[in-house]
């Protein structure tokens, strides 16, 4: 029979069991932390009507959508978790209770040209707090508090949540009389770190911003110092724009509240260069970076938006949220060795029967599971050496050997696979030991 | 601005938060049980090359596939989790350790005509044990042991795992000299419960089975009694077919071992009418039914197969596995009221600050989370009544009210939302109480 070559598409992450166990552990830590703050889980279809997906995106993203038809339906795979949330809130608004805190960890799709570090199928882990009509600024402080706790628990080393408020730069543009160009300017600022000062300056000049003002903008977003220092500088600036003043006042309040939420000051840094490319954001914006220099780029980003579902509803749903790019983060961590896959089994012990009649071995395995120990049974009639080799390969920490002697004594020979130490124990003792 | 009507495709299950929490709880129970037996998690792309999907399916299923192209690639959404497993095992065989125990809980897609109880996007929860070259019969007994534990833990009432071995009926066909028709006969037997005796008999006659033999086949598969009784009847039958004898002997061994795995005899019933439609299965076959009559049909099914990856590899990978149709099961349980959605939040307590300065409330929320209590904070500046109404609507079991008094005393007024009882407590006591 002719064989089909087994393969997957480039840009689709697929893991071996030991890596998958690590990835799932990371997802579990994240979802548990989200739930710790009262965010409800959400799960929406991977497939949306194309009209929904296309409602509020640019042409570049449109091209990347996996689009298809089935019968008369024009469909596509979702490219993020925000559009489905907007559609969901507009659709079920009357059955939801606001403020609505939801998290969603799921796959999204962008058919980009595959390249190192870019994925076509990728997990995002999103939280959002959505209000109906209004939503207080406390929520802008809760989001970084959740992210802070997530990255503390993930134990990936030091990290910093960089924060700004888009009203500040937008207000500055108003002050310079180029308020209508604020979205373009914010996009340039967003790229500053990547393209460098000179290129960013030229990009601003190309937007017909005067040279002097372009330099002022770039100097402004590079303002550095402690959070208190930057706020002091902002407060002292003689800017008349109400938008600017509101931005500064919001930023000050959000920083203060974030610290009150228990976030260590060293993990939170005002950074006026944080702009987020999307015109979607209207206030607070965040980006989080790991300080480990091997991990490139922002690992999560988000912010405040005035109206989540404007394409789908006449009701106003302001919100604030953040998204962790899980697949990209995990793939980098694995590549550079920050995390290491070790065990290819969730079992803590492998029961190895040495006799064809497995009665006692089955009993032991059942008892261990009852006692809460994840237990795998070696089922094949192989030589002892092969059985131990299997245990070594899957990285199980203990094996419980059950031969004639053990059956007679109703005990188990427990071998610690790290130390090699072996002892004869009763089943209850095995559970305690592990 | 013209609005796009928010909507999803028919046949796609989408849940409100309280239902989603229930669904996730069910998924968690299932995945934890799979891990308790040492099955490693697997996650494969939703999108596969069409050639992979088409490698071993019939024309009916082909038509149901969501198929699309991106650039030069001919792609489709997976329609089950078995084809991806076959592709995975063929692709990474050299990096895996056999027997390979994996579970996968994920979505699959079939673009059927939508109708009540049929889903186009649905979760399956699969376990399989895959061997390289060979796989012992003990594994056929482990699978129902896992399923038994899953349904015990799900607490959906009594259930029965019905078991047979396809070699038995196939052997009987050999005996009747119509061995080449065994797959068609097995498909008729598989439909017996649904179509009834007379129709099934006619279907067999249409296959050019003699009337007398058609009746014998149907009488045979209706053999009832205890497992011991049925095995006794099978052993006493004077059938020369070696295949038949092997089937009976395998069935006897699998039943015996399944009981030794700790499965209660009342949950395990030999049923010779269990045939499974797919020609894919070659030995043991299972189906599980809930005894609650409101839940229709089989909730999970599976069996033994000789060669998992025959379309993708020259290596032989025999295996045994089972699949739970999670979306269909959940949707039925919810519809008939076996399970009920109550809480729309994972939080156990809602902290309600009564003052604009939330300092103490934020402190309390943080402390409760540190103590392991999922805690939501009410962030909006609303009237007390509205805050309590919110608590009622999301179904949170406790609220912690923090007003002037509480701030002064550094305590919390904890209200039990079920009993209405309220007491002034220290934060540590709140954590203990909840």
Automatic annotation (TrEMBL), chains A, B:
Its EC number is 6.1.1.21. It is an enzyme of class 6 (ligase). The keyword tRNA processing does not apply. L-histidine binds at residues 80-82, 110, 124, 128, 276, 280-281. Signal peptide: none annotated. One of its GO terms (molecular function) is histidine-tRNA ligase activity. Transmembrane segments: none annotated. It catalyses: tRNA(His) + L-histidine + ATP = L-histidyl-tRNA(His) + AMP + diphosphate + H(+). Residues 22-346 form the Aminoacyl-transfer RNA synthetases class-II family profile domain. The keyword Kinase does not apply. Belongs to the class-II aminoacyl-tRNA synthetase family. Homodimer. This is Histidine--tRNA ligase. It comes from Candidatus Collierbacteria bacterium GW2011_GWA2_42_17. The gene is hisS.
């Amino acid at each position: 029979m002719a064989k089909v070559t087994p393969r997957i598409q480039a840009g689709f992450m697929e893991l071996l069991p030991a890596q998958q166990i690590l990835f799932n552990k990371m997802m579990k830590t994240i979802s548990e932390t989200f739930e710790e703050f009262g965010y409800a889980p959400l799960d929406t279809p991977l497939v949306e009507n194309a009209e929904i997906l296309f409602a509020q995106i640019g042409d570049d993203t449109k091209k990347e959508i996996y689009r298809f038809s089935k019968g008369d339906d024009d469909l596509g795979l979702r490219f993020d978790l925000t559009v489905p949330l907007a559609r969901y809130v507009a659709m079920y608004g009357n059955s939801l209770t606001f403020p609505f805190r939801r998290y969603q960890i799921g796959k999204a799709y962008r058919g980009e040209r595959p390249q190192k570090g870019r994925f076509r199928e990728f997990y995002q882990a999103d939280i959002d707090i959505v209000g109906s009509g209004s939503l207080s600024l406390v929520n802008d402080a809760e989001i970084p508090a959740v992210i802070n706790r997530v990255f503390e628990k993930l134990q990936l080393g030091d990290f910093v949540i960089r924060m700004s408020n888009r009203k500040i730069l937008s207000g500055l543009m108003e002050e310079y009389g180029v308020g209508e160009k604020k979205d373009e300017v914010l996009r340039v600022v967003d790229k500053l770190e990547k393209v460098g000062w000179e290129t960013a300056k030229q990009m601003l000049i190309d937007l017909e911003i005067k040279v002097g003002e372009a330099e002022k903008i770039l100097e402004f977003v590079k303002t550095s110092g402690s959070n208190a220092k930057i706020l002091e500088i902002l407060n002292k600036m003689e800017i008349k724009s109400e938008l600017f003043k509101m931005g500064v006042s919001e930023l000050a309040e959000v920083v203060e509240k974030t610290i009150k939420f228990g976030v260590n000051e060293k993990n939170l840094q005002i950074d006026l260069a944080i702009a987020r490319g999307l015109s979607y954001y209207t206030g607070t914006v965040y980006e989080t970076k790991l300080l480990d220099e091997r991990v490139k780029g922002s690992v999560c980003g988000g912010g405040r938006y005035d109206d989540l579902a404007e394409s789908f509803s006449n009701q106003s749903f302001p919100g604030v949220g953040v998204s962790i790019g899980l697949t990209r983060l995990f793939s980098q961590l694995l590549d550079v060795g920050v995390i290491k896959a070790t065990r290819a089994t969730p079992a803590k012990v492998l029961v190895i029967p040495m006799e064809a009649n497995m009665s006692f071995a089955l009993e032991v395995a059942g008892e261990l599971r009852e006692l809460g120990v994840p237990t795998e049974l070696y089922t094949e009639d192989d030589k002892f050496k092969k059985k131990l080799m299997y245990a070594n390969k899957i990285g199980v920490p203990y094996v419980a050997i059950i031969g004639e002697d053990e059956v007679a004594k109703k005990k188990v020979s427990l071998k610690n696979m790290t130390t090699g130490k072996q002892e004869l124990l009763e089943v209850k003792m095995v559970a305690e030991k592990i």
